[in-house]
Amino acid sequence: MFGSLRVLLQVLWAQLLCGWVLGSELTFELPDNAKQCFYEDIIVGTKCTLEFQVVTGGHYDVDCRLEDPDGTTLYKEMKKQYDSFTFTAAKNGTYKFCFSNEFSTFTHKTVYFDFQVGDDPPLFPNENRVTALTQMESACVSIHEALKSVIDYQTHFRLREAQGRSRAEDLNTRVAFWSIGEALILLVVSISQVVLLRSFFSDKKTTMTRVGS
Amino acid sequence: MQPCVLTLLLLALLSGRVPALYFHIGELEKKCFIEEIPDETMIIGNYRTQLYDRQREEYLPASPGLGMFVEVKDPDEKVILSRQYGSEGRFTFTSHTPGEHQICLHSNSSKFSLFVGGMLRVHLDIQVGEHANNYAEIAAKDKLTELQLRVRQLVEQVDQIQKEQNYQRYREERFRQTSESTNQRVLWWSIVQTLILVAIGIWQMRHLKSFFEAKKLV
């Protein structure tokens, strides 16, 4: 009973200490001519990674900009489809990153971003342990890290698949639309050709009869 | 020792996760987030709001009257969660169909004075699948040792990977269907357009020939 209580205590303490050092992963819709900014308070010395990808919309590109608390631009790219940027926080304060779709007139974009701040909180406060991890525990830790990278790759694959599927569905509707459009144009042009030709010869007929008589 | 443990327990269980990332939302603005997830996956969302105080010129926790309306739609556009929460809230739902779920937030403010010229600051954190698990709770409920808890975490992770793989197979099938439909459409419409072209050509020639014959020009 006390063993599990001790475990519970350690986990709770870990959560209290590191509960706010977490990554945020969001997918949101960015309307045309819009800009969306996100902010996060970061402590100096923390290693952070910002990764984003455009999932659907237009030419699948977006402007991205990352600023530190003093307004200095740490990262700025225009019309990028996908990128990953790692930096170490040099100052304490609120870091801001913005996605802009202001160059687009009528396409909505869906943007995915993953902002990792620091490391993931450990399940237990390992730094407080007196003894080193047993072989079983260190095996568990390495499996956990490997599985985390598997899940990461899965997310990347899912996003690329969503992007590919979005392009394929766009292509499908465009093919249908333009095929029907072309068939109609073909009919309209050929019928009007005949009508126009007939109208030329109708005028000549009256002049011919006048000449004849 | 025991009361200390209990207070720590209460503190941690109540605090949960503190959302760190924040953004600004206007009064009538609706912000939507998309989560593409397999079925039987739990999602926990935590949010916290702050309102700009003009006198103190900083963001302070919003009054209890100002809440957020949370609406969750499943891939078939059916609403699975539609509730109003206070200025600080936590919403949970489990997906029953795989696909894109939409989580929309907007403030329920009807009093213009609260928002004058300002924006509402919303701290948001959405945890999906294995990340949504509260390991402290699981350890306490099932009375697990350290090693058992680690293994349980690995099992949950592998479970999530498996569900995602199944979902991937289903999505790849949809993709293949779309591509095959495009292929069929291109083929069919090309044939139809060629036939229309030939038919129109024949009709034009026959019509004009009969027209000129009638006019005694041929």
Automatic annotation (TrEMBL), chain A:
Compartmental location: Cytoplasmic vesicle, COPI-coated vesicle membrane; Cytoplasmic vesicle, COPII-coated vesicle membrane; Endoplasmic reticulum membrane; Endoplasmic reticulum-Golgi intermediate compartment membrane
UniProt main location, coarse: membrane
InterPro entries: Emp24-like, GOLD_dom, GOLD_dom_sf
SUPFAM superfamilies, sorted: Supernatant protein factor (SPF), C-terminal domain (SSF101576)
Keywords from the UniProt entry: Cytoplasmic vesicle, Endoplasmic reticulum, Glycoprotein, Golgi apparatus, Membrane, Protein transport, Signal, Transmembrane, Transmembrane helix, Transport
Lipid bilayer topology: Single-pass type I membrane protein
UniProt-listed GO biological process terms: protein transport
Superkingdom, natural source: Eukaryota
GO cellular component: COPI-coated vesicle membrane; endoplasmic reticulum membrane; endoplasmic reticulum-Golgi intermediate compartment membrane; ER to Golgi transport vesicle membrane; Golgi apparatus
Positions of transmembrane segments: 175-201
Signal peptide range: 1-23
Coiled coil: none
Claim: Transmembrane is one of the keywords in the record: yes
Residue ranges of every copy of the GOLD domain listed in the record: 35-117
PANTHER family: TRANSMEMBRANE EMP24 DOMAIN-CONTAINING PROTEIN
Family label: Belongs to the EMP24/GP25L family.
Role description: Potential role in vesicular protein trafficking, mainly in the early secretory pathway. Appears to play a role in the biosynthesis of secreted cargo including processing and post-translational modifications.
Protein name: Transmembrane emp24 domain-containing protein 7
Organism: Oryzias melastigma (Marine medaka)
TrEMBL record, chain B:
PROSITE patterns in alphabetical order: GOLD (PS50866)
Residues of the signal peptide: 1-20
Transmembrane segments: 186-205
A GO cellular-component term linked to this record: endoplasmic reticulum membrane
Bilayer topology term: Single-pass type I membrane protein
Keyword Metal-binding tagged: no
Pfam family, one: EMP24_GP25L
Principal location listed in the UniProt entry: endoplasmic reticulum
Keywords, in A-Z order: Endoplasmic reticulum, Membrane, Signal, Transmembrane, Transmembrane helix
Keyword check for Metal-binding: no
Residues annotated as domain GOLD: 30-128
InterPro entries: Emp24-like, GOLD_dom
Subcellular location: Endoplasmic reticulum membrane; Membrane
Protein origin, superkingdom: Eukaryota
Protein family according to the UniProt entry: Belongs to the EMP24/GP25L family.
Protein name: Transmembrane emp24 domain-containing protein 9
